[in-house]
DNA sequence: GCCGTTTTCGGCCCGACTGTTTTCAGTCG
């Protein structure tokens, strides 16, 4: 699938055109097309081959031609032309807050600045302030931004870090100041895999007390801004958190606005205009009289546009609004639908807790079952188990199952390692002792695409293996996915009736939302959501896996661990 | 450059903030 690659080219082209001062709407068209491709659950190259590119809303004749040219030759004429006009290193300047495309172009034409290096020199020589439209203040800000750059490179943080942190702030605020309503917004609420900053909205009678308390919390390293109704802090880990107090009458509209995504909101506002309304963060207004119509509750914003409430995780402008207009919004899976965890490690291998401890936690969650799936012997570093070890573990599981009979069920599983030749740790005969076998790649990530793909397919042919764990092997922020032909995997998974895992560990979230969406839409696959927990704490990661599933528009029926104990038992025997 | 149960031409989201301005462009989310 070359979607990401093609999207990036179009984004790049848009950036060049922006700097060159091309018409805003033209640029937006490229960005919009790129975004569509990025979110497309089909390989763009297939659509191109079939001449169906213009079926995608936002791609017309012009962009379709450019995509085809890129796919065939690796180049786009228009992009190459742009590169002749401005040096590619000029794009670096856009990373500086306060310098946009117009600013970059001015700096280039007036001062010949071609890169961050040049910019730094010009700032030091105080040349920036002499250009029209710039001044001493701007120069100072650029200098500051250049100095801060290393810090800023910490970039986006994992949902698994941001989510608990946001909950901590919410709980602290609730417990210490008078809060009426409170909601975490932004990409956390949409359960995006990584988060830029944390946005929290509240209504309160005493905004100043909220601001005082928030800016003096123990997590605060630096108070970036403190106002009457909005404050920004940096935590010790350099995570930015904004808290804003809004009027109760605007709370719903503000939550809608700050939840995003930006593109979703643009579509909502466009729809509003067609219906004679204006939507902003303060409410929904009649465009003629400017009279407020609603905005206290978030669902009102949708309902006034004849839309049902759209779950935050779906708000990415991937077609959810059109679907909602048609009354075809799927009922996506919820946390309460989850009846068990399909992937948990214990201290038999590299986990921290005993089976009993895990069972008790699962019961606390209201689960009906859990799949214990410790590593097998070939994964020495993770304390992989031999058949003898597994048999010992089985005895303990049997005992516990007797003890919890009628209340909870432990499935005796394993997580096999798909070796470099596609074989697994044990023979098929040996695999018979397990209730369910999982298998995943844990070594040999750097093999070429064909080989890795064949490896996984070979493992899928083993009858006892039901679930392929973390199918792409990525670790967010540290390791890219290995080269794997996912479409081929999807096809064969369907063929052999295998389940692909949505691994809920925050560093993995693998499959990701787009992959899972493609797996369902195109191949009709089913998935398991497993935490891959190595401790009791890890069991809580289920919410992130469910978040991915919701972002992929999966329903309860698409996820095997929403099955009841009875159904699940039957399912894994088939 | 794209799009159309109000349009094949004339539109294309909204508001705040900043720094530079004397009415606004650029940037940001």
Describe the structure.
- With 574 residues, this protein is an alpha/beta fold.
- Helix content is 44%, strand content 14%.
- The strands form four sheets. Strands 11-12-13-14-15-16-17 form a seven-stranded parallel beta sheet, with helices on both faces.
- Strand 16 (499-503), helix 21 (513-523) and strand 17 (527-530) form a beta-alpha-beta unit.
- The longest helix is centred in the N-terminal third of the chain and has 18 residues, at 159-176.
- The radius of gyration is 26 Å and the shape is globular.
- The model has no long low-confidence stretch (mean pLDDT 91).
- The chain binds one DNA strand of 29 nucleotides through residues 23-30, 32-33, 57-63, 97-103, 132-135, 137-138, 141, 196, 257-258, 260, 262, 265-270, 272-274, 278-282.
Can you summarize the main beta sheet?
A: 7 strands, parallel
Strand order of the largest sheet: 11-12-13-14-15-16-17
**Structural class estimated from helices and strands:** alpha/beta
Stretches with pLDDT under 50, minimum 5 residues: none
How many beta-strand runs?
Answer: 17
Strand percent estimate:
5-15%
Distance between the termini: 32 Å
Q: Please tally the helical runs, counting DSSP H or I stretches of 4 or more residues.
A: 24
């Amino acid at each position: 699938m070359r979607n990401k690659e093609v999207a990036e080219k179009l984004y790049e082209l848009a950036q060049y055109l922006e700097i060159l001062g091309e018409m805003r709407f033209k640029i937006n068209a490229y960005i919009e097309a790129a975004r569509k491709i990025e979110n497309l659950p089909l390989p763009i190259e297939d659509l191109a081959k079939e001449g169906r590119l213009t079926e995608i809303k936002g791609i017309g004749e012009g962009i379709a031609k450019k995509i085809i040219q890129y796919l065939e030759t690796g180049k786009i004429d228009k992009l190459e032309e742009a590169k002749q006009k401005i040096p590619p290193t000029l794009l670096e300047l856009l990373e500086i807050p306060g310098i946009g495309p117009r600013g970059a172009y001015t700096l280039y034409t007036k001062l010949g600045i071609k890169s961050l290096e040049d910019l730094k020199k010009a700032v030091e020589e105080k040349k920036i302030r002499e250009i029209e439209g710039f001044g001493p203040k701007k120069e100072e800000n650029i200098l500051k931004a250049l100095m801060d750059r290393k810090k800023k490179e910490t970039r986006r943080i994992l949902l698994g870090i941001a989510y608990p942190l946001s909950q901590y702030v919410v709980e602290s605020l609730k417990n210490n100041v008078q809060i009426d309503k409170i909601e975490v917004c932004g990409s956390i609420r949409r359960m995006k895999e990584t988060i830029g900053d944390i946005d929290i909205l509240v209504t309160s009678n005493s905004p100043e007390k909220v601001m005082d308390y928030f800016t003096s919390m123990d997590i605060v390293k630096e108070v970036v801004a403190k106002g009457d109704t909005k404050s920004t802090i940096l935590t010790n880990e350099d995570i930015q958190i904004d808290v804003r107090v809004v009027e109760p009458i605007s709370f719903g509209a503000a939550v809608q606005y700050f939840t995003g995504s930006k593109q979703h909101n643009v579509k909502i506002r466009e729809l509003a205009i067609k219906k004679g309304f204006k939507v902003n963060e303060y409410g929904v207004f009649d465009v003629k009289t400017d009279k407020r119509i609603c905005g206290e509750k978030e669902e009102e914003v949708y309902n006034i546009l004849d839309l049902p409430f759209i779950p935050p995780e779906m708000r990415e402008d991937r077609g959810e609004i059109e679907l909602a207009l048609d009354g075809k919004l799927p009922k996506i899976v919820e946390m309460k639908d989850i009846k068990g965890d399909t992937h948990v490690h214990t201290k038999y291998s590299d986990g921290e807790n005993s089976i009993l401890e895990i069972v008790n936690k699962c019961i606390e969650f209201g689960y009906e079952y859990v799949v214990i799936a410790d590593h097998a012997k070939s994964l020495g570093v993770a304390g992989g188990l031999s058949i003898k070890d597994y048999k010992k573990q089985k005895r303990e599981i049997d005992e516990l199952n007797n003890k919890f009979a009628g209340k909870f069920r432990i499935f005796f599983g394993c997580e096999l390692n798909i070796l470099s030749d596609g074989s697994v740790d044990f023979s098929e005969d040996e695999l018979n002792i397990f209730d369910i076998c999982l298998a995943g790649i844990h070594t040999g990530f750097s093999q070429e695409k064909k080989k890795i793909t064949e490896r996984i397919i070979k493992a899928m042919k083993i009858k006892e293996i039901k679930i392929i764990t973390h199918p792409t092997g990525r670790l967010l922020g540290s390791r890219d996915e290995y080269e794997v032909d996912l479409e081929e995997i999807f096809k064969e998974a369907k063929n052999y009736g295998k389940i692909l895992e949505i691994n809920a560990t925050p560093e993995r979230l693998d499959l990701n939302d787009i992959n899972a969406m493609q797996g369902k839409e195109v191949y009709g696959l089913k998935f398991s959501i497993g935490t891959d927990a190595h401790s009791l704490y890890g069991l809580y990661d289920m919410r992130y896996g469910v978040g991915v599933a919701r972002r992929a528009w999966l329903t309860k029926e698409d996820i095997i661990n929403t099955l009841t104990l009875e159904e699940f038992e039957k399912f894994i025997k088939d």
